[in-house]
Protein 1
Amino acid sequence: MRTIDDLDVSGKRVFVRADLNVPLDGDRITDDGRIRAALPTIEKLRERGARVIVAAHLGRPKGAPDPQYSLRPVAARLGELLGTEVAFAADTAGESARATSAALADGEVALLENVRFEPGETSKDETERGELADRFAQLADLYVGDAFGAVHRRHASVYDLPGKLPHAVGGLVLTEVEVLKRLTEDPERPYVVALGGSKVSDKLAVIDNLLGTADRLLIGGGMVFTFLKAKGYEVGSSLLENDQLDTVRGYLERAEREGVEIVLPVDVVAAEKFAADAPHAAVNVDAIPADRMGLDIGPKSQELFAEKLADARTVFWNGPMGVFEMAPYAGGTRALAQALIDSDAFTVVGGGDSAAAVRSLGFDEAAFGHISTGGGASLEYLEGKDLPGIDALA
Ligand SMILES: Nc1ncnc2c1ncn2[C@@H]1O[C@H](COP(=O)(O)OP(=O)(O)OP(=O)(O)O)[C@@H](O)[C@H]1O
Ligand SMILES: O=C(O)[C@H](O)COP(=O)(O)O
């Protein structure tokens, strides 16, 4: 794979696909970790006289402009961090993008509006994606793939565009892959994987593969309830993937057969509604009231998970244990982070929100072995799956 060092970028327009999918509260960025992680590649290109056109997605808009998912606040923050003005194109691949790209001087940077405002970006139809990629290609001379958090997506700006321009892999992708390799090539055991978060259907699928590599799986976050339901418990109004119950039963059976431990919470914090001020209490998993939703693992589960991490030598953690953004439901995530720190294991934390949680709860990033910008992407890498956004850079 070619790296940036192999490209002659001086005076050229370089399209950089980055993952700038940061958590927002209104238009306030609550964690800028992914923007910071994108800086080295952009800075290197600027130093070498490139005209840098950054493209990224934010959230999951439905293929049309939606102001709540605008990257405008990200352009402002990127400019602050780079210490230079970042021009913002009000569209993704239209008139504004073309004019913004054409106006760039050497060393200048622009950010395009959210690539997912274009239906072609996430389309399953290759022709539709290809048409958008053609429009992107008109904006630039070269392509750099550095969106590690999105390399598992077969999307126009990640997968199709590199086929249309001379391209190189970015430094962030290289670093991430180098660290994650340590987890796939003979990890020190016990190897424990902790899974949580809310992208339940995305992440349930990885369990199948993890059963073949990890010694122990700790299940927290929104994923818990599909497991509990599959075991016959009632889960009230908690997040639930009803159509995955059989799959999950299959995982539980296979784990038992193959001697992989799946550790489920024994209690959860159940709230009347999805709100910080909602009445809530810790209840055992066999006593979740029908009108309540589980928003965190409970204190007994925190202890249990810490015990299950104490002897680990390698840990990968993706997905918060609860709705850590609201103080009453942050305990599980805080306890898990602390247990990782207390263990002697090589620890990797992956995912936009997981990394944000670690930082927002006041932990020192340096206390972990590696904080990855990829959640789903890291998991798919660990599964050994082909990653479209990396394959396309070959
Ligand atoms: N029990 C729960 N019910 C609902 N949401 C939950 C629950 N537990 C955690 N969450 C939410 O999960 C979200 C994060 O999930 P997600 O799967 O996106 O993780 P991530 O670390 O960002 O990984 P990725 O980078 O793949 O997105 C948080 O916003 C958190 O509030
Ligand atoms: O947050 C992430 O994991 C990446 O930015 C990818 O986002 P997606 O799951 O919406 O494709």
Protein 2
Amino acid sequence: MKYVSTRGEAPTLGFCDALMAGLARDGGLYVPKHWPTLTKKEIRALRGKSYQEVAFAVLTPFVDGEIADDKFRTMIDEAYATFRHPAVTPLVQTGPNSFVLELFHGTTLAFKDVAMQLLARLMDYVLAERGERATIVGATSGDTGGAAIDAFAGRDRTDIFILFPEGKVSPVQQRQMTTSTASNVHALAIKGNFDDCQNLVKEMFNDTPFRDGVALSGVNSINWGRIMAQVVYYFTTAVALGGPDRKISFTVPTGNFGDIFAGYVAKKMGLPIDRLVVATNDNDILARTLKTGRYEMRAVKATTSPSMDIQISSNFERLLFEAYDRDASKVRLAMAGLKQSGAFEIEEKALKAIKREFRAGRATEKDVAGTIKSVLAETGYLLDPHSAIGVHVAAKNEKPGSPMVTLATAHPAKFPAAVKSASGIDPALPTWLADLMVREERFDILEPELKIVETFVNEHARIRN
Ligand SMILES: Cc1ncc(COP(=O)(O)O)c(C=O)c1O
Ligand SMILES: N[C@@H](CCOP(=O)(O)O)C(=O)O
């Protein structure tokens, strides 16, 4: 399996190189050259298998023999042994045809752990094989950062630098990033918003001397390895609900478009998915784009679902590439428009292709609080604000007789203030995080300027080529 850039001007790479590259050298995102497929018979054979077994079956075509099967199996087993639920991502029924897929049983209580625990092991393995080290940078609106720090802490082949927007993440999220005692971890509070952090990360990748000088790698969902690992739970869920002999719909709380793009990949691989529904908060750029065909940035609004306070939705580029039948020149044009004027138009044919695959809806702050309250009253189930967005939008997109699964992307205890205000319940952190709020914090505050961040990374990274 080879990987190509969405902008068509970077070298085509194999799995391990695409994994270590993070962002392609032309600023694009890597995607597989073709989608591997599983037959209905092969999908049916996944029924009753463990999460780990399904992961191996679904992910092997992407790795394509670049890592020996036994080594890859061990990585999968170790990654998912960190989860506190035997099913890894359990499914909870909340209505006759409504389900919540709990993706928050990992160490940092968000869906990011699912991919990050595997990604860290894959990267470590590749670096060890090659006798190399890497400098990892990541931007976070709250959850990616904690998950990445947890997964990479103490690994001596990597130094990790996580950029988070100062004052714009929840106190629990902040402490998951700032209380690590590992010397290879650097939490950086950036005076800006998530989009500023993400732009800085992309600019570091586009600065070739810097990129090569510190052997830069990335762990955001711009890295194909992140998307790939998230494809697995669409398969485990669908087969648990009667797939592939029945179509399942999914609603996904969406920000950077990584999680829902993984659903699209599952569909491309042959999983019968009915509706794929994008659920946004007040930062509804994706819902507006699907309606109007114009991707147009607006000022970011702070909401009770801070992890989704995003305007530049990185993985939408992967979808554009698909919708334009993989014509990279059209993607380059759109991305140049975005850079220049903060907007681009999607051609009619491509928009139609996108609308055939996706629906979208938005939840206001009032909807979020109302959903947390009503779901608790009706079912006894406590949602976090991000998952509540999904449940609110899912309800408007359900089809009678057809299962609708909402991805529950975070544990309510990560956002106690919003959850308490909506439900009256103060959700407790699990025992392993019980002392989180009294642990000592360690982080640096930086201006959102490329040179300042690069200087910091250069001074602290233990690699210099
Ligand atoms: C809790 C939570 N829900 C949803 C999202 C959105 O996921 P994606 O960026 O993959 O669209 C994020 C962050 O991205 C998140 O942290
Ligand atoms: N919501 C994310 C934003 C970054 O998304 P990623 O999936 O591209 O890493 C976060 O919590 O940091």
